[in-house]
Amino acid sequence: MPQLNPNPWFFIMLVSWLTFSLIIQPKLLSFTSTNPPSNKTLTSTKITPWAWPWT
User: Fold this and answer.
1) What does the alpha-carbon distance between residue 20 and residue 33 come to, in Å, rounded to a whole number?
2) What pTM, to 2 d.p., does this model score?
3) Res 16: pLDDT
4) CA of 14: how far to CAs of 5, 17, 24, 26, in Å?
5) Mapping DSSP to helix (H, G, I), strand (E, B) and coil, where does residue 51 land?
6) Separation between Cα atoms, residue 3 and residue 11, nearest integer Å
């Protein structure tokens, strides 16, 4: 069965992972985020109970 022969497929997988890891990933990680996280102060919200009309 030729599907079980790892000779061509392993090389293709290895080259594709190396290409992604060494070339594409550093280029993607160098981009700056469009919405960077900021340190916001937490504000406490005032919780008011709901006035149910049937009680």
Assistant:
1) 20
2) 0.45
3) 92
4) 15, 5, 15, 18
5) coil
6) 14
